[in-house]
Amino acid sequence: MLEEVERWLSERSWSVTDRPLHQIMAAKRATGRTVSVVLPALNEEETVGAIVSAVRRDLVLRVPLVDEVVVVDSGSTDRTAAAAAAAGATVVHRDAILPRIPAVPGKGEVLWRSLLVTRGDIVCFVDADLREFSSDFVSGIVGPLLTDPDVHLVKAMYDRPLTVPGKDAPGTVAAGQGGRVTELMARPLLNMHWPRLAGFVQPLGGEYAARRSLLERLPFPVGYGVELGMLVDALHLVGLDALAQVDVGVRIHRHQDGQALGRMAAAIYRTAQLRLARGHLIRPALTQFERTGDTFEPRTYSVDTEERPPMAEIAEYQAREVA
User: Fold this and answer.
1) CA-CA distances (angstroms) from residue 209 to 18, 140, 142, 234?
2) Which pLDDT does position 259 carry in this prediction?
3) Beta strands in 254-303 (DSSP E)
4) How far is the C-alpha of 142 from the C-alpha of 115, rounded, in Å?
5) How far apart are CA 241 and CA 38, in angstroms?
6) What is d(CA 27, CA 144) in angstroms, rounded to the nearest whole number?
7) Which residues does the chain have with pLDDT short of 50?
8) Helix (H, G, I), strand (E, B), or coil: what is residue 277?
């Protein structure tokens, strides 16, 4: 590991207990900064309401750290929107944001559009499929942005236990075995090509907060590559010491099957490739196989290659900022 990264780990890796809530609130009052929490959601009826409720109970009503909670629904076919609204979130459909630009499927697309329907100086993203959610996830990663003006982006780090199904021990939990795409794709890419980012424990984690002034200058890969792309681009824009991570404990969420993980890995690889050699296009597709009867049937999926430009370049966003 680079000496610079070892130093960064000691100076920019914290625990949620390092900044008590009263200290964070004092910094919020002193700076006047506002905080938006955004949940991108697609068919998360079972979990989104509990997350919104916890944030509102602990960080809006009990302590006014969060100024708005926004759920951006990217086309759910279940009661995700109703559950989020009932819990007190502002719910906006992806397609209603910036209709001039037709929306495409993808997590990054939703995060990018959320900048137009939120107002916070600090934007905190939280995945909507978390179980046993704690509001420490939010206060932990927002805290450094309120207390340290030199920090611009904070990632959550955590254990990701993997539930292992099996006949002998159904529901066995393997500690630290989550984050398979991280270990098999993202971490090798970062260590080989962007070794200054090798200190991030969960580079692909969906819980992170950043200053709007940074987010509006970043391009957003529309799909699963958004987290890796954001880290790499933020490194180039603001430098390693403006990035940080906070240990918030344990993250429990729904796990994807192997083929879904393959598609995620392909999108992440493509995002990395674009940043390594823009313009050198390869075939942006991934073929996987499924058994059909006595043979294997190929299934080919396109890999996300589109990116949204920095929000600061969008006319509607510029007009809103002037107003």
Assistant:
1) 17, 10, 6, 12
2) 85
3) 285-292, 295-302
4) 17
5) 25
6) 10
7) 165-170, 172, 177, 279-281
8) coil
Q: For residue 98, which amino acid is it? A: L
Q: Are strands 162-164 and 122-125 parallel, antiparallel or unpaired?
A: unpaired
Q: Do 233 and 219 form a contact (C-beta atoms < 8 A)? A: yes
Residue type, 264: M
d(CA 202, CA 160): 9
pTM of the model: 0.85
Task: Find how far residue 54's CA is from the centre of its chain.
Answer: 19
Distance CA(52)–CA(71), nearest Å, equals 9
How far, CA to CA in Å, does 165 sit from each of 132, 171, 173?
Answer: 20, 5, 9
CA Rg, the chain, in Å? 19
- Dmax over Cα atoms in the chain, in whole Å? 68
3-state SS assignment for residue 199: coil
Q: For residue 72, give the nearest of 110, 119, 29 by alpha carbon.
A: 110
Residue 13 is predicted with a pLDDT of 94
Q: What is the DSSP secondary-structure string of 135-160? A: THHHHHHHHHHHH-TT--EEEEEEE-
- Smallest CA-to-CA distance from 98 within 73, 85, 115 is with 115
* Number of residues in the chain: 323
Residues 253-308 have pLDDT tens digits of 566 678 888 888 989 998 998 888 664 445 566 666 576 777 667 777 777 667 89
In sequence order, the 6+-apart residues with CB closer than 8 A to the CB of 269 are 185, 189
Rounded to whole angstroms, the Cα distance separating 208 from 159 reads 15
